[in-house]
Amino acid sequence: MKNITRRQFVTNSLQVGALAVTGASLATRSLASTESFSAFQFSQNKLPYDYKALEPHIDATTMEIHYSKHHTAYIKNVNDAIAAENINAGNETEFFNMVSKVSAKAKNNGGGAWNHNFFWQIMKPNSGAPSGKIGDAINGAFGSFDKFKEQFTQAAMGRFGSGWAWLVNDGGKLKIGSTANQDNPLMDSSELKGTPLLALDVWEHAYYLKYQNKRNEYVAAWYNLVNWDEAARRLG
Ligand code: MN3
């Protein structure tokens, strides 16, 4: 008797399941024809160097966990949220322009997806001081590279809890600031606005294995890794 009941239950469930699938695909089709639903999804850029390339300043284990666990999870979670919420953005810019209207899951993971793709790109092994047009821009805006580092370090150290320090180009003016959590200057909700030129991840997951509570040592070491050519390219 129990077996028959169970079999009947399974059969009913399958029928309900089939109806649900039919209903969902009809809904998707009608949405696609009336609202031109976009299938934009974030993707994880390939790391431009191997995990140990930034040693001794950032260790290989931190890089591996940061890239393959944290960043990968942000990408998956934002894409799940985009699909679940039918977020109709055509690209990253549109997504961040409407980010105040999406769920916290979509916003936080979308920020995490974009910020880390950017972060990997603006680092490289064995960098030095900025030169050429980005050097001139830094000197013009902050007085000197040392004064820039002082202000940027303050932004990174002053961010309480998790977040990011940024150098942005706001309409031709270079500015330093910070954001909480995975917020970034592209978000419609962000107080700090502008085109990102540099970013520094100050979440503990970015440094704790090697530096423990010494965020200041991580920030100081990071200046050896800044990809100034990439910052110059983004300055335009
Ligand atoms: Mn991170």
Structure description:
- By secondary structure, the protein is mainly alpha-helical.
- It is built from nine helices and three strands, in the order H-H-H-H-H-H-E-E-E-H-H-H.
- It has a three-stranded antiparallel sheet with strand order 2-1-3, sandwiched between helices.
- Helix 2 (60-84) packs antiparallel against helix 4 (104-121).
- The longest helix is centred in the first third of the chain and has 34 residues, at 2-35.
- The protein is globular.
- Residues 1-36 have low confidence and may be disordered.
- The structure holds manganese (III) ion.
- Manganese (III) ion binds at residues 66, 70, 116, 201, 203, 205-206.
Describe, in short, the structure shown:
With 236 residues, the chain is mostly helical.
- The DSSP helix count reads 9
Q: How is the largest sheet built, in terms of strand order? A: 2-1-3
| Bound molecule kinds, no repeats | manganese (III) ion
- Shape label: globular
Model regions low in confidence, pLDDT < 50 over at least 5 residues: 1-36
Give the helices and strands as they follow along the chain.
HHHHHHEEEHHH
